[in-house]
Amino acid sequence: MNEYTISVSPDVLTSLRYASDWLVASSLDGSLSLIDASHKVEHIALDAPILDTTVLDSGIYSALANGTVQKLDLRSRKASNTPIAHNLPVQCVESHAKRNLIISGSWDKTVQLADPRVLEQPSVMDLPGKVYAMDVHQQTDRFIVGMSNRQIHVYDFRKLDRPVSSMENGFRFQTTKVRFLPNGRGFLQSSIEGKVSLDLFEDAENNYAFKCHRQKLVIENESVDLVNPVNCLEFFDTESRFFTAGSDRSICLWDYKTKKRVKQYANFEMSIVALAYNQDNHQLAIAMSDDSYKNMTGLDDQTNNKPAIPSKITTRNMHS
After folding, report:
1. Partners of 146 in the beta sheet?
2. What Gene3D superfamilies does this protein's entry cite (predicted)?
3. From CA 315, how far away is CA 27, in angstroms rounded?
C-alpha cells in the first residue's frame, strides 16, 4: 500500500477536498493548503478561520467563521468574496454543479443558495436549528441538512418552500456528518457520541444505528467505554462500502448492506478529522490533527488551547 505523509498546518484541519490535480486542505488558522501530485504544498491565507470547503469548476469555496464564503480561483490563485453573508459562522458549504450553485449552512439557522457567477443576493432559507452538517445529491436534485435540535430536513432544489422529508434523528448528541447514499435512496449520519445510523427514505423498517470508534478501558477494575466523536463519513468504491474515522485515531471500512465492518486501520498519530477519497486513482487522503482542545473545561483552561504538534495529511493508494 503506497503511503505518503506531510505536515501542512500548525492548527487543526477542518476539511479535505480533491480538486482537479490538487488535494485541498483547510485549517482553523485561515489557510488553504494546496498539495500537488508530487506532494509539494502551497499555502494561501483567507480572511478568517475556515470550517469547510467545496469545489465548483476551477474554484475552491471556503466557509468562514466570519459568516462569509470566499472563492479561491485555482488558476489565478486569487481570492474573492461571494454574495453569501451569514450573521454567524458558516459551518458547511456544498456545491451543485448542474445548477451552478453554492449552498452554505450556518449557526444563524439559515441556508443560503447563490450562483457565484452573478452578484445577486442569495436565496435565504430559515431553518429551526443551527446547521451542523449538509450534503448534496445531484442525481436526485436534493440536499440534506442536519441541525442542532436533532432535526434532519431533506429539500428538493425544484421546490424549496418546504422539506420533502423531515425527521428527528436517534442520536442524543450533536450530529457531525450526513451523507446521501450513492443511489440517493437514503443517508448516513454520524455523531459525537460514537454512533452512525442508516436511514432509508422508502424502506424505514431496515433503518439501524451502530456504535463505533469506542475504546475499552479498565478503571478501578471496572470495564468502561471511552466514547470518541465520529468525525468523518466517506464512501468507498462500491455503493455499499464507506469509511468512518474518529478521535480514537482509527479508520473503519464498513458495508451497510451486510452490516459488518470490513477492515480497520488503527493507531494513527493523531485524531482523524477529515477524509477524502479520489475515485479516479483510488487514493484516500487522511487529515490528522491534535484535537485535544475538545477536552477543555472552559475558556480559563489554557492547557490544551493550541495543538501540541502540527497537523498532517497522509495519502494512501487503496488498491496497491
Report:
1. 133, 152
2. YVTN repeat-like/Quinoprotein amine dehydrogenase
3. 18
Cell of 265: 486501520
- Quick check: is 134 in a domain? no
Neighbouring CB atoms inside 10 A of 78's CB total 10
pLDDT digits (tens, 9 = 90+) for 19-59: 988 999 999 999 999 999 899 999 999 999 999 999 999 99
State the amino acid at position 73 in one-letter form: D
**238 vs 162: CA distance, rounded Å:** 32
Residue 181 lies in a domain: no
Q: Which residues contact 297 (CB under 8 A, 6 or more apart)?
A: none
Handedness of CA 164, 170, 171, 177 (dihedral sign): negative
* Assigned domain for 63 exists: no
Which grid cell sits at 129? 436549528
Number of domains in the chain: 1
Q: Which residues, in sequence order, are bridge partners of residue 153?
A: 145, 166
As a three-state string, the secondary structure of the chain is CCEEEEEEECCCEEEEEEECCEEEEEECCCEEEEECCCCCEEEEECCCCEEEEEEECCEEEEEECCCEEEEEECCCCCEEEEEEECCCCEEEEEEECCCCEEEEEECCCEEEEECCCCCCCCEEEECCCCEEEEEEECCCCEEEEEECCCEEEEEECCECCCCCEEEECCCCCCEEEEEECCCCCEEEEEECCCEEEEEECCCHHHCEEEECCEEEEEECCEEEEEECCEEEEEECCCCCEEEEEECCCCEEEEECCCCEEEEEECCCCCEEEEEEEECCCCEEEEEEECCHHHHCCCCCCCCCCCCCCCEEEEEEECCC
Per-residue pLDDT tens over the stretch 183-231: 999 999 999 999 999 999 998 899 999 999 988 877 777 888 888 999 9
CB 144 within 8 A of CB 132: no
Range of the domain at 253: 1-33+229-320
